[in-house]
């Protein structure tokens, strides 16, 4: 390498290995995202679910998390946006018809377990994959685009039909990218928050507006003995009001603040696969 008086090392000699290491790290991250549960870091095993941000999880890990939010140390960071099983969709996946790699093969030679039913491309991170949030069927983005573009285009508003199960979906609203890029993920998160603002609050607004004299709802509430229905309704209203405010605050966050959060996230992303929070549990 030099420094023995015979030659002078230049930059290429000194940093030669770096890009290779980065490449390996990227490959590891890709493998982690497509072969392992984003929450438990265990191998993905059906039933597999995905969220509004397109991450892949084992359904049992999500159930575990929902029952006990501290079951995974960094669970809140990874899937704090999952409030119930209604926020995830079980994916309909197509098993890879190719024979699995031999037992002793290197992990990087591992075969994807699933393929796109339209193109038979493997789901290994090399091709963008999407799922339809109404039915959970999973395809390559390209495959689904090809099929849906041949469907009738009479009206933009017309719903498409899933090529696998024939359930209807909206091309604009119901296609979710799996393991999206950071920018895509940011957009998807913003969309998710916007959608949630439109959701009716858990305890309907109707109750908030009902006066104590209103004969119908109180009679229902009196079913709870020992509870003053008016106070109960008022506290519920306060809680849902606070939740709405919080949601509004998040949605109204200025771009500057968002970009701050974005870059903080970006930094986290750069952690290597091996140092990433929960991975040690798997190792
Ligand atoms: Zn389908």
UniProtKB/TrEMBL annotation:
Signal peptide: none annotated. It comes from the Eukaryota. InterPro entries: Rtf2 (IPR006735), Rtf2_RING-finger (IPR027799). GO terms for biological process: DNA replication termination. GO terms for cellular component: nucleus. It holds the Pfam family Rtf2. Residues 9-25, 188-202 have a biased composition (Basic and acidic residues). Residues 1-26, 177-270 are annotated as: Disordered. Belongs to the rtf2 family. This is DUF602-domain-containing protein.
